[in-house]
Amino acid sequence: MERHQIQRLRHETRRRILTLTAVERLTPNIARLTFAAPDLQDFVSASHDDHIKLFFPAPAGSDPGAKPVARDFTPRRFDTKTGALTIDFALHEAGPATGWAASARVGDTLEIGGPRGSSVTPDDFDWYLLIGDETALPAIGRRVEELRAGAPVTTCVVVASEADAQQFETRAIWSPIWVTRTSRAHDAASLCAALSTFQPPPGDGFVWIAAEASVARAMRAYMLEERGHPRAWIKAAGYWKQGQAETHERIED
Ligand SMILES: Cc1cc2nc3c(=O)[nH]c(=O)nc-3n(C[C@H](O)[C@H](O)[C@H](O)COP(=O)(O)OP(=O)(O)OC[C@H]3O[C@@H](n4cnc5c(N)ncnc54)[C@H](O)[C@@H]3O)c2cc1C
């Protein structure tokens, strides 16, 4: 079979009601929440960058009968033996998702939908480079953990503080670059500066990017224009947009 074939899968879409079973402050700005539900038995998440919809109650003051609000999150880990689903929340100033996660208690319930589909990037590239911010860390952590033994993978992630760096267990050869944020406006410049000494290993590489939309766009342009990386082997997404609620933007030309 030809190398580097991306596989697209569709899944049956279902709503599920989950019960929160554990709450942990993983790092100062990341809350790790673990959920269980009998109907998670047939939950499938085939790719590290899958997303599920989480449904939160409409904000106080909304019209009576207002629909719940939906936000996208990554299934950070799904344990097929125990049926436990882990989601990591990057806590920020305000929003229905961050507010819910910051005050969630064991026993609370949460409705989810999806994932509707998966886009599976193959494990056959010679190396991987994963770039992002805190919202991308769940997908980046999964990718690092799931890569084949010996695969070279570099991660370059901007976080709010040194203490927000994470450790991943992996058989891949993982080189982390952690960038401590100076200001959000400088995220792209700081990531580019941190990558200036990155020397790609020989062979074909896949670059995955997810961050605030303008940062993701700037990092994609950097990889294309400054580093000459092949367009087909870059995947970039805006996981949120400064000043705007609920956005998901696939970044292309
Ligand atoms: C495919 C996909 C997967 C994602 N996976 C995760 C995940 O696993 N974990 C995770 O934490 N996030 C993840 N996100 C990002 C998350 O969906 C957004 O951050 C979302 O906007 C948070 O919702 P909210 O209700 O907290 O804030 P919103 O109501 O959406 O936004 C309120 C305000 O906060 C700002 N804002 C939103 N997010 C952030 C942020 N992270 N930092 C600073 N300001 C912000 C907005 O610009 C807006 O001004 C993912 C997004 C996508 C598209």
Describe the overall structure.
- The structure is a single chain.
- With 253 residues, this protein is α/β, with parallel strands linked by helices.
- The protein has two domains: 7-117, Translation factors (Elongation Factor Tu (Ef-tu), domain 3); 123-250, Rossmann fold.
- It has four helices and 15 strands.
- The protein has helices spanning 96-103, 137-146, 187-195, 213-226; strands at residues 7-10, 15-27, 30-36, 52-56, 69-73, 77-79, 84-90, 109-113, 117-120, 127-132, 152-159, 173-180, 205-212, 234-240, 249-250.
- It has a seven-stranded antiparallel sheet. Strands 12-11-10-13-14-15 form a six-stranded mixed sheet, with helices on both faces.
- Strand 10 (127-132), helix 2 and strand 11 (152-159) form a beta-alpha-beta unit.
- Helix 3 (187-195) runs parallel beside helix 4 (213-226).
- It is globular and about 55 Å long.
- The model has no long low-confidence stretch (mean pLDDT 95).
- Bound molecules: flavin-adenine dinucleotide.
- Flavin-adenine dinucleotide binds at residues 51, 71-74, 88-90, 92, 94-98, 135, 138, 239-246, 248.
Strands, helices and their partners?
Blueprint lengths: L6 E4 L4 E13 L2 E7 L15 E5 L12 E5 L3 E3 L4 E7 L5 H8 L5 E5 L3 E4 L6 E6 L4 H10 L5 E8 L13 E8 L6 H9 L9 E8 H14 L7 E7 L8 E2 L3
This protein binds flavin-adenine dinucleotide.
Strand content: 35-45%
The CATH homologous superfamily name of the largest domain equals Nucleotide-binding domain of ferredoxin-NADP reductase (FNR) module
Bound molecules: flavin-adenine dinucleotide
Instruction: Provide the low-confidence segments as ranges.
Output: none
What spatial form do the alpha-carbon principal axes imply?
A: globular
Order of strands, widest sheet: 5-4-8-2-3-7-6
Mean pLDDT: 95
Number of strands: 15
Label the CATH architecture of the largest domain: 3-Layer(aba) Sandwich
What is the CATH topology of the largest domain? Rossmann fold
Q: Tell me about the largest β-sheet.
A: 7 strands, antiparallel
